[in-house]
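[job 0417] fold request received: E3 ubiquitin-protein ligase
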Amino acid sequence: MGGPEGRSEPADAEVDMPALEEAEPSQSRSTLPTTNLVTLFECPVCFDYVLPPIFQCHSGHLVCGHCRPKLTGCPICRGPLGTIRNLAMEKVASSVLFPCKFTSFGCGLTLSPAEKPEHEELCEFRPYSCPCPGTCCHWQGQLNAVMHHLTSHHRPITTVQGEDVIFLATNIHITGAIDWVMMQACFGHHFLLILQKMDKYEGYRQYFAFVQLIGTRNEADKFNYRMELNSPPRRMAWEARVRSIHEGIAATIRNSDCLVFDTDIIEFFAVSGSLGINVTISRF
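[job 0417] inference complete; emitting C-alpha cells
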C-alpha cells in the first residue's frame, strides 16, 4: 500500500537543537481587566451581577440570586435551572471588584463580592423611600426630591421652626393603629417628628416616638434629639442620636430604640385628649 515514506536518521547522527532560552511570562496570558471580567457576571434578567454562591443551568448559564427564585427555567436556553454550583466562576468572582449597583446615581466604588451587599445596604447614593409613616407609598427618589414629594403627594405636614418645639398629638385616644407627624426646621435641616401607635403584640398597644433627619446618615450623625413628656411631678424622657430617613423606621420600632410608652402612661401626661412632647434637637 502506497504512502509517505518515513526517513530515519543514522543512530550516530547529530541533530541540531535550538538553544533553550528562559521563558518569560506571556503578555497574552495576563489577567483580563476587571471591567471585562465583570461583564461575564451580568444577570441576563436584571443586569445586576451574579455573586457567590453561583448556580448555573445545565448549559452553563448564570442567573443572579435575586431573579433565580422567580424563574421556572433558564431565561436563555429555557432549560431547567437545577442546583449545579459553578465553583470556577465563584473563584474568579472572589478576585473581581464589582461596581456598586447605584453607580448610575453617583456612587463610584468598586467592591469585592463579600463587601458589596453590606455597602449597598448603606450606600448614600441608594434611592430614598418615602419617609411618611402609615402609608403604602412606594415612591423612591433622590434626597433633593424628598421634600417636594412629601408636600405634593401627602397630607399637609405642620412645620415649626426652632431647636426646642412642642410636638402636639391630638386625639391621642383614637382607636386603631395611627401615626402623628410634624416637621421641625433648625440648623438648616428638616427633621421629621414621628409618633406611631401600634400593637406590639395582640392586645398590647404601644406608642413609639422618634426623630429622623431628611438627610444622609453622615449628616444625621451630627445631631442628637431629646423627647420629654412632662407633667409635674412626673417626667419621662428619651435621648438618642438622630437617624436618617435612609435607615427607615422598622428597626427602630422593632428594637424599641426610641421613646416608648403604653396607654397607661398616656393617662399621666395627656390633657383633653392631646399629648404634648417636648422635642429638642442639638448639634454635636
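[job 0417] notes: Residues 146-153 form the longest helix (8 residues). The chain is about 15% helix and 30% strand.
[job 0417] exit 0
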